[in-house]
Design a protein that fits this description.
Blueprint lengths: L4 H8 L8 E6 L7 E7 L5 E8 L7 H21 L4 H4 L3 E2 L8 H5 L7 E2 L5 E6 L13 H17 L17 H14 L9 H9 L1 H12 L6 E3 L8 E3 L5 E4 L6 E3 L2 H11 L17 H15 L5 H27 L12 H18 L1 H12 L1
Antiparallel strand pairs: 1-2, 2-3, 3-6, 4-6, 5-6, 7-10, 8-9
Helix pairs in contact: 5-9, 5-10, 6-11, 9-10, 9-11, 10-13, 11-12, 11-13
The structure holds 2-acetamido-2-deoxy-1-O-phosphono-alpha-D-glucopyranose and magnesium ion.
The site of 2-acetamido-2-deoxy-1-O-phosphono-alpha-D-glucopyranose (GN1) has 11 residues, from loops.
Amino acid sequence: MNYTEEQMMEIARKFDVGGSISEIKPLGPGFINDTFVIKTGGEHPVRYILQRKNHIVFPDVPGMMNNIEMVTEHLKKKVVAEGGDPMREVLTVTKRRPDSMSDEERKAFAGDLYYKDENGNYWAVCVFIEGSVTYEKADTPALAYKGGQGIGKFQAYLSDFTTPLAETIKGFHNIRWRFEQWDEAIARDAAGRVKDLSEEIGWVNSRRQEMLGFWTKVEDGTIPTRVTHNDTKISNILFDKEGEVLCVIDLDTCMSSTSLNDFGDAIRSYANTGAEDEKDLGKVALSLEMFEAYTKGYLSYRKGNLTDSEVEWLAFSAKYITYEQLLRFLMDYIDGDKYYKIAYPEHNLVRTHAQNKLLCSMEEQYAEMKAVVDRYAK
Ligand code: GN1
Ligand code: MG
């Protein structure tokens, strides 16, 4: 469903953006939500991010927005205590303009944090952080080191956050649940593609027990559960122009899980020598240099605060999340491309192959990865 510029402006005006809106432009390349930048006119223009939240993927948008509000409030207190700037170093949710709300909206849970339009789409706004830079790929170890610090600090700040968070996507990084979805997808064969995918399906099946073995450690409490981000790819971090981490964004999946997910998902993007959807598999591998830089940065904040079991499984988490991503891309391809936005028909299959190549490269270098973790965890 496409909206005209006027309709989107109307939606944006429901939020407390001060001043009149002069411009609205799409901002890419999120796979799930639709993102726009809005600019308010006047002498001192201010920019905001307007997002249409994908409520098929996130069935409880009010719960999600409430999570984000609570987590960002907590983070802001930490930043203030350290003498930082809470408006630049933490995402700021922009609330609804009270005079734009109906009685029903006022009574709704977290009703001031989102707008549900007549088509059933949910919208939310946050402040645009000026002077920030995002990357699709880490080009230097220095950037990977800083990214590691950013997520390490994020986890450290949230380590004393105790309010239960809503589970915004059921079993998001729970491979046992993913296998339930997977088995159903194979049986359903919605797009009739299973017959041509025996090699790729084999990549998933051959590692199934190994991955369940890891998840069992989370289920039995050997590996603890904490408040985590769960989507730590490099493009979800804002850097400043000097390459320092400014702010961790895309908090839609902030919930309780193992902190290892945040490490593993970051490695999946920072330490990949190629793009997530690279067609030339010769370009895709795990860069041990990037792995080391990220690990060093991350552990500079988390060393001493992780349990022995977390340290033991840290390197494995990179394989786990890359494997899960392979499964999710392939499952979506089998389902007929219902979840991830695609740019061309084979996109999810290309992504699957690239993740598998990355995973194989991690498997080959696993002993070295473990040695790096041990070096910086002490
Ligand atoms: C999605 O929303 P975005 O583009 O930051 C996905 C992640 C995947 C990632 C792959 C809610 O992230 O889990 O790792 O694509 N987010 C959701 O690039 O499924
Ligand atoms: Mg996301």
